[in-house]
Design brief:
Length: 201
């Protein structure tokens, strides 16, 4: 009876092979979770754990990538991580090598809003000298929104209750998708050209 030859790995060879398998199988992935066990050593690297209610995984974000973060990570923060799946060979521990991190959910929206707000403030768009008083009562109000959404019904209902004789012009636009911003901008320009509305919503 012939015994098949044994393939014997050293621990170093095994861990190196597993690291290559993990990296080639997954490639670059996105993982969402909550930061815990955050460590900020003097090296500038970030080490933390990403967890959900049932599991956790160790993560490393190295100094070069950490410098480009737009927010300060903290324990308990929910984030999206772009990463490569790897293995820390000396200890045989599977981990994520993160190269980009952003806040998830409401945190991301808040951050984007604050960045936009700061940009517009820097352009002087919130300067009180540029603001015009809203006439009370206005002669006509323009509403720029989706003609089929709940928002327009709410606005019309409130205006009808408070100012039943007030003329209202609805400028129909998309409010979602890539084209929305262009349609909204065109509607504002149209309302400005028509000069029929004292105020726009």
């Amino acid at each position: 009876m012939n015994t098949p030859p044994r393939t014997i790995y050293t621990v170093t060879e095994l861990n190196g092979s597993v690291r290559l398998l993990l990296s080639s199988h997954f490639g670059t992935i996105w993982v969402e979770g909550e930061i815990s066990n955050l460590a900020l050593p003097s090296s500038g690297h970030l080490y933390f754990t990403l967890k959900d209610q049932d599991a956790q995984v160790r993560c490393a974000l190295f100094k070069g990538s950490a410098r480009s973060l737009l927010f300060k990570p903290a324990n308990g923060m929910r984030v999206l991580a772009r990463a490569q799946v790897g293995l820390y060979e000396p200890r045989g521990e599977y981990q994520l090598i993160v190269d980009y991190l952003e806040e998830a959910g409401d945190g991301a929206l808040r951050r984007a809003f604050e960045i936009l707000k700061a940009k517009l403030a820097g352009e002087g768009l919130f300067d009180t000298k540029r603001k015009k008083p809203i006439p009370v009562p206005p002669r006509c109000v323009g509403v720029i929104t989706s003609p089929t959404g709940a928002a327009v019904q709410d606005i019309l209902s409130v205006l009808k209750r408070r100012f039943p004789a007030l003329p209202v012009i609805v400028f129909p636009v998309k409010v979602q998708g890539n084209e929305a911003k262009h349609e909204i901008a065109r509607a504002i320009a149209l309302a400005d050209r028509l000069q029929q509305c004292d105020a726009l919503i």
